[in-house]
Design brief:
Blueprint: H1 2-6, H2 11-18, E1 24-28, H3 32-44, E2 48-52, H4 55-65, E3 70-74, H5 82-92, E4 98-102, H6 107-116, E5 121-123, H7 128-159, E6 160-161, E7 164-165, H8 169-182, E8 188-191, H9 198-208, E9 216-220, H10 226-234, E10 235-236, E11 248-249, H11 251-254, E12 259-263, H12 270-282, E13 284-285, E14 294-295, E15 299-304, H13 308-313, H14 319-325, E16 328-331, H15 342-357, E17 363-364, H16 366-374, H17 380-394, E18 399-400, H18 407-413, H19 432-450, H20 455-462, H21 466-475
Parallel strand pairs: 1-2, 1-3, 3-4, 4-5, 8-15, 8-16, 9-12, 12-15, 17-18
Antiparallel strand pairs: 6-7, 10-11, 13-14
Helix pairs in contact: 2-7, 4-5, 5-6, 8-9, 15-17, 19-20, 20-21
Length: about 475
């Protein structure tokens, strides 16, 4: 489903917004003859051209009238040389493209220009045919980069659904169930392990449905004392018990026309279960101390992280209530069965944490990402979020390494059932750097083996770019 959407991105809108029909070129050269010649020649070739006779004017024009698709900068100018011009352009606009033109074919100057960020160089007198060929190649490369960024943005956008993140088949199936259930009134039971995002699923069903304009009332049954449960759920009348100084409207009554979400419903006592069953069957509640039922229009969605059938067999959960809330069952997959979503989730949390703290977005080192994918995540998405929060807090550079990850994740990874190699006790006596190298080598060897030595598939499984995988293979002398 996701791939079908990505197959037809709004490419025309992207091209029109980023690259107009005629690419804009800024020529900065102190020689008026060269400036005029390049202006006329590039215009004939179909480029939109602007010029400046010194470095300062060129920089000012770039930021006042640009950014331009590419700047052609003379290396030797009296006020600011071409290398400094490029440095300043790149400092303010990291994606600025610049090529140098020089009357002196000096290798040293060209190397300095390339280090400053120049993408190519041309010697005077400039051959227009050669210039046309190279400029179109440079601009086409830029188009490909921008297209890739655009598609990556589309993936991130499509990978997020009402706060849920993932593109795995399991998550696509979950999204489809949410869409189908949103406009229904059927009672839903959401099942899943702790930390899988059950409340996000429930909120998505509510926010996409016809009850979205009314209240969403979440109730954590496990956090509410049983003595107060009936009063909280169904309300009470003034004087119903000691301390009831005024009438209290129950949470279910407050959800008129909306959605009641009962989280950890397995913790609900047998007494409140009887009243809840009546509220579901009759769509009415009886306040504690009240003499007449009060009609309430609400939708009930419950969630649990245990097997309610087993609780029912043990006599801890009423059979009739079970079948009332078991209208449609939605299973939220644990993170260990959708490990392909881990890179997306990790990047999502890193971006969110960076925006919240007002700091630059950190990136995960390839070896750190491999370790995240090897871990079983018993705490699921919530545990991954906490791990990313700790990593951001401990990270001192731009890249999160294994050293920044929680010790529980690092030390447990090699013992997980989905990693079929074993590291002996001696592994734990090694310095961290050496232990990490051993883990990486064995992990990559196993991933390559499982993928039939197909590098692209192995890189996808590890959650890293294939270029990084090739680099690691070379580093650890691994061959296909």
């Amino acid at each position: 489903m996701l791939l079908d959407k990505l197959a037809e991105p709004p490419v025309d809108d992207w091209q029109d917004a980023r690259f107009p029909e005629r690419s804009r070129i800024l020529v900065i050269d102190d020689d008026p003859d060269v400036l005029d010649s390049l202006h006329r020649g590039l215009s004939v070739l179909g480029f939109e051209v602007d010029g400046a006779r010194d470095g300062r004017t060129g920089i000012a024009r770039y930021f006042a009238e640009g950014p331009f698709d590419l700047s052609l900068v003379d290396l030797n100018m009296p006020d600011i040389d071409g290398i400094e011009v490029i440095r300043r352009l790149k400092a303010q606009h990291k994606d600025a493209l610049a090529a140098v033109i020089t009357a002196y074919d000096s290798i040293e100057s060209v190397v300095q220009a390339m280090k400053a960020g120049a993408v190519d160089y041309f010697t005077k007198p400039v051959d227009l045919n050669h210039l046309d060929l190279v400029l179109n190649r440079i601009l086409e490369n830029r188009r490909q980069v921008e297209r890739l960024r655009f598609l990556e943005g589309q993936v991130v956008q499509l990978a997020s659904f009402q706060g849920l993140v993932g593109v795995s088949p399991e998550m696509q199936h979950l999204y489809e169930m949410i869409r189908k259930l949103a406009n229904s009134n059927v009672t839903v039971l959401v099942q899943g392990e702790t930390g899988t995002g059950k409340e996000l699923v429930v909120r998505a069903i509510h926010s996409l449905g016809k009850r979205r304009r009314a209240r969403f009332v979440p109730i954590n049954c496990g956090a509410m004392p049983e003595a107060l449960m009936e009063s909280e759920l169904f309300g009470h009348e003034k004087g119903a018990f000691t301390g009831a100084g005024k009438r209290k409207y129950g949470l279910i009554e407050q959800a008129e026309n909306g959605t009641v979400f009962l989280d950890e419903i397995e913790t609900l006592g047998l007494g409140p279960q009887v009243k809840l069953l009546r509220a579901i069957q009759e769509r009415e509640v009886m306040r504690v101390g009240g003499g007449r039922p009060i009609p309430v229009d609400f939708r009930l969605i419950a969630a649990t992280n245990v097997d309610l059938r087993k609780r029912m067999e043990e006599g801890l959960f009423r059979e009739d209530l079970f079948y009332r809330i078991n209208g449609v069952v939605v299973d939220v997959p644990p993170l260990r069965v959708r490990k392909g979503d881990i890179p997306l989730l990790a990047d999502h949390f890193l971006t969110t944490l960076s925006e919240k703290d007002g700091c630059p977005v950190r990136e995960l080192a390839p070896e750190a990402m491999m370790l995240l994918k090897a871990y079983s995540w018993p705490g699921n998405v919530r545990e991954l979020e906490n791990a990313m929060a700790q990593a951001v807090a401990f990270c001192e550079g731009k890249e999160i390494t294994i050293e920044d990850l929680p010790e529980s994740v690092v030390m447990s990874t090699t013992d997980q059932g989905d990693v079929s190699f074993h590291i002996g006790e001696g592994f734990y006596s090694l310095p961290l750097r050496e232990a990490r190298a051993q883990f990486e080598r064995r992990y990559l060897r196993e991933v390559l083996k499982k993928s039939g030595n197909r590098v692209v598939e192995a890189a996808r499984h590890a959650g890293i770019h294939r270029r990084h995988l090739y680099e690691k293979m070379k580093q650890y002398h691994l061959s296909r």
